[in-house]
Write a structure and sequence with these properties.
about 30% strand, 5 domains, 5-stranded mixed sheet, 8 helices, alpha+beta, GMP Synthetase, Chain A, domain 3
Amino acid sequence: MAINNNCPFDLTPYTQSQIITTPNIFNLNYTNQDFWSMKTRLVDFVRQKFTTDFSDFVESSLAIMLIENWAFLADTLSFKMDQIANEIFIDTVTETENAFRLAKLVGFNPQPPIGARSMFTASLNNPITYDVIVPAGQQLKVNSGGTQIFYELYPADAENNPIFDEDIVIPTGAIVNASIVGLEGRTRTLTASGTGAVAQTLQLGTSPVIFDSIRVYIDGVLWDQVQYFTDSQPRREYRVEYDNNYVAFVIFGNNRTGLIPSIGSNIQITYRIGGGPIGNVVSGSIQSQTLINVPGLSYAVPVAFRNYTRGEYGYSGDTIEDIRLKLPAWTRAQDRAVTGLDYKTLTDQFVTPYQGQIGKSTSVLRNYGCAGNIVDLYILAKDGQAGLQLASDDLKNSLQKYINDKKMLTDFVCIRDGQVLYVDISIDIVLDRLYRKFEDEIRIKVQRRLDNFFALQNWEYNENLKDSEISKVLSDIKEISRLDISFVTDDPNNGGIFVQTQFYEIIRPDVLTIGFTYE
């Protein structure tokens, strides 16, 4: 499939998708509702209303004990009321389980974990006169960051997606097969029997379950996973739901929407567990060898495995902060692309199981009338936790198919590469010499505020960078007397105290230098 077909590259934008800003909803926390405030107010009330009838305000008296008991109950009830009120709004929810419930209430599915992917070679020392067959799912142990993880190997199709039901073959006379995809994680199998019950539900025993890794066989027949049962027909379909720990539940139908597995039928579910950026290993870091028995040979053949691309696309799954960010935008889009912001929302949240996910996008309309129905999507793929990189053609192809199902019939969508504008940042901090011994602590404070300022969720395309913005971020660090901030980019005319972007560019920090001067 061709990308950017019939899409001219020179355009002047008419308008660009803009994020809708809404007022922040702060945690509900009524004043004067704590224990000591309650007690003080009640004591003052008694003093005013019962001046002649009661005067025993000694701390050890029975009356004060009863007042304190009432204040304790009032404080507890007030706290619980505030807590419950906070937990029903996505802006103030603090419990992940409650965030998942709010998401499911409107049909939003938080993104489950994704296993990292890397391309591998399987090689022999010498060619032999037989096919060498390595079983699909060949497992390799890997040490990553002091933690042991696993990669499983599968033959790759033309788009480098895994083929789960075929073995890896090194053909007769060859010594290398380089069309192998390795997936971080481990495969698990659950076997159960059909009960004939309506909406039979099976919980997968191990978690977290990797996104799009579940396959269900009923009496040897592969069933289809759907988000919603297709229509009022007993089709061979099932749904998958996740809890807040990414434990997966496989749910069958009721014979009106989705077929019920018959009583005694054999249900076999295979799924994979793992996921996360821990699988994003560097190229060449995985080297392993195993012995494969080959029919016709009296000895086992050594096969060496090596990853020739880096591990990428590993994702730990949406956190409560991710849900808080995604849910309002998803609710506004209503799973269809009408406005420019709808296109951006759907694109920003687009994920594939093996080709990565979109990190940032923007939608642009052209500045001439004959192109009023053309939408240009500038995209960058996510790289690790906070980085951006050019999207692969496979990811673009998958996005194009997805958007074509969501767009207005008359819209024409062009998918283009966004550009990252890398900025070197130099910050010279002036401190009183008395703070010299606290330099390490101050450096940590500065670094944390800058990390939050440049967090990916806080930046969009066509946003400029000013030195005053960083000064404002660091202004609450009282030890700092003055700041001298400068920026450097590849363009000598775009830097100093101001960095300007084009509509297809997004700023990301590159080299950060923090220096201290004492006076």
